[in-house]
Amino acid sequence: DIVMTQTPLSLSVTPGQPASISCKSSQSLLHSDGKTYLYWYLQKPGQPPQLLISEVSNRFSGVPDRFSGSGSGTDFTLRISRVEAEDVGVYYCMQSILLPLTFGGGTKVEIK
Amino acid sequence: QITLKESGPTLVKPTQTLTLTCTFSGFSLSTSGVGVGWIRQPPGKALEWLALLFWDDDKRYSPSLKSRLTITKDTSKNQVVLTVTNMDPVDTATYYCAHKGYGELFAYWGQGTLVTVSS
């Protein structure tokens, strides 16, 4: 199985400040089709996860442009340019290049 | 508008079989590239993928649970059913179903259903 490792485990951010979450995979997520199968989800308190970013850097419909994803191979980053109160929750990365699909352990983002 | 909703028992006893139904709207499981997956989340813990069923009836399972899982579809009813045999207290979790589209993975989720395993 591909192991997804997220850091940090938690993050406390002042509103308006940037935040960054790292996700490292135990194997490359670059497929022979040229795509990299890394996704980011946000699970707000008491809600199901919501898709933020597909294939490393493609924001899903309706996701604010303060969210951005980058990376390649085995190292990926989710950045929030200016954190807002509504961004609190747990962020998960997930890979789909190989079954079983695997998620990172999550990064909890709180507001200071 | 794509929506999904999970239904099933909230409490099962150890060794029993859990049957969960995902009823969806806004898409067809007959459409190429479409699928429905099941993911669970024990209280306070991370997400765990369980199974994925595709439009062509291809089925994929988590290897760690494969012997206990069965995923099926009823296209006419817009439903996907997950059964989990031999339930154990460690299977206590919120179970989610989610949509897989062409080029998208789990962009739409149900609200989840909490299943507790206890005697």
How would you describe what is shown here?
- The complex is a heterodimer of chains A (112) and B (119).
- Helices cover 0% and strands 49% of the residues of chain A.
- In chain A, the strands form two sheets. In chain A, strands 2, 4, 5, 6, 9, 10 and 11 form a seven-stranded mixed beta sheet that branches. In chain A, strands 1-3-8-7 form a four-stranded antiparallel beta sheet, with no helix packed on it.
- The N and C termini of chain A lie far apart (36 Å).
- With 112 residues, chain A is an all-beta fold.
- Chain A has no helices and eleven strands.
- Chain B is built from no helices and eleven strands.
- Chain B starts with a strand and ends with a strand.
- Chain B has strands at residues 3-7, 11-12, 18-25, 35-41, 48-54, 59-61, 69-74, 79-84, 93-101, 104-109, 113-117.
- In chain B, strands 2, 4, 5, 6, 9, 10 and 11 form a seven-stranded mixed beta sheet that branches. In chain B, strands 1-3-8-7 form a four-stranded antiparallel beta sheet, with no helix packed on it.
- By secondary structure, chain B is an all-beta fold.
- Chain A binds chain B through residues 1, 39, 41, 43, 47-51, 54, 60, 92, 94, 96, 99-106, and chain B through 37, 46-49, 52, 60, 62-64, 96, 98, 103-107, 109-112.
Notable traits:
heterodimer, A: 112 residues, mainly beta, seven-stranded mixed β-sheet, 49% strand, B: mainly beta, four-stranded antiparallel β-sheet, 0% helix
Largest beta-sheet details of chain B:
7 strands, mixed
Question: What is the 3D shape of chain A?
Answer: globular
Strand tally of chain A? 11
CA radius of gyration of chain B: 14 Å
Structural class of chain B: mainly beta
The chain-level mean pLDDT of chain A equals 97
Series of H and E elements of chain B = EEEEEEEEEEE
- Number of strand segments of chain B: 11
Number of helices of chain A: 0
Beta-strand content estimate of chain A: over 45%
Radius of gyration of chain A: 13 Å
Query: Could you estimate the helical fraction of the residues of chain B in percent?
Result: under 10%
In percent, how helical is the residue content of chain A? under 10%
Class based on secondary structure composition and strand pairing of chain A: mainly beta
Largest sheet of chain A: 7 strands, mixed
Q: What is the straight-line distance between the termini of chain B?
A: 40 Å
Largest interface: A-B, 22 and 21 residues
Euclidean distance between termini CA atoms of chain A: 36 Å
